[in-house]
Design goal:
Layout (H helix, E strand, L loop, with lengths): L2 H4 L9 H81 L16 H14 L26 H9 L2
C-alpha cells in the first residue's frame, strides 16, 4: 500500500519516548518548512502585486500617450481638410471671376468642387456685374502736365463744383 510509505516507521530498538521525540522533531521540521514556504509565497504575492501596479501605471501612461497622439493626428487632419477646402474655394472664386465683382472667396459654401461652382453661379446671378468704365481716350497721359488747348486745373475745379 502506498499510504503506508508516508507513515513514520518505528525505529528498531528505540523506546516509545524516543520515537515520540523523533516524530515531534519531524513535525517541527515540516512546520518550519511550511512557514518558510508561506513566507516565500507572501513575498512573491507582494512582488507580483507591485509588478501589476507598475504594469498598470505604465499601461496608463501608454494609453495617455496614445490618446495624445490620436488627438494630434485628428487636429492635423482637420487643419489639412480646412486648408484643402480654402484652396478649392479660392480656385473656384478665381475661375468664376469673383474679384471683378468684389466678392470674397469665403462667401462660397459647399464641400465639393461641384457644390462650390453651383453656389458661385448663384452668387454671380445675385450680384450685378460692375458697369463698364468710361474710356480713357483723349484724357491725356497720367502724370503729365495738361497741355495747351486742354482745360487748366482751375477750369477742372470750376467745372466740377458747378455741377
Amino acid at each position: 500500500m502506498p499510504d503506508d510509505d508516508n507513515k513514520p516507521k518505528p525505529t528498531e530498538g528505540a523506546t516509545l519516548e524516543e520515537q515520540l521525540a523523533a516524530a515531534l522533531a519531524d513535525a517541527e521540521k515540516w512546520k518550519g518548512l511550511s512557514r518558510k514556504n508561506e513566507e516565500r509565497a507572501t513575498s512573491n504575492a507582494d512582488k507580483a502585486k507591485k509588478f501589476d501596479e507598475h504594469e498598470e501605471a505604465n499601461r496608463t501612461e501608454l494609453e495617455k500617450a496614445i490618446a495624445r497622439a490620436e488627438a494630434a493626428e485628428k487636429t492635423v487632419a482637420e487643419r489639412d481638410a480646412k486648408d484643402t477646402a480654402a484652396t478649392l474655394r479660392d480656385e473656384v472664386a478665381a475661375a468664376k471671376g469673383f474679384a471683378d465683382r468684389k466678392i470674397s472667396a469665403t462667401a462660397l459654401r459647399g464641400a465639393t468642387r461641384e457644390e462650390l461652382e453651383a453656389h458661385a453661379d448663384e452668387l454671380l446671378a445675385l450680384v450685378p456685374a460692375p458697369p463698364a468704365g468710361p474710356s480713357a481716350d483723349g484724357q491725356g497721359q497720367a502724370g503729365q502736365q495738361i497741355g495747351e488747348g486742354e482745360m487748366s486745373a482751375e477750369d477742372v475745379v470750376t467745372a466740377a463744383t458747378t455741377r
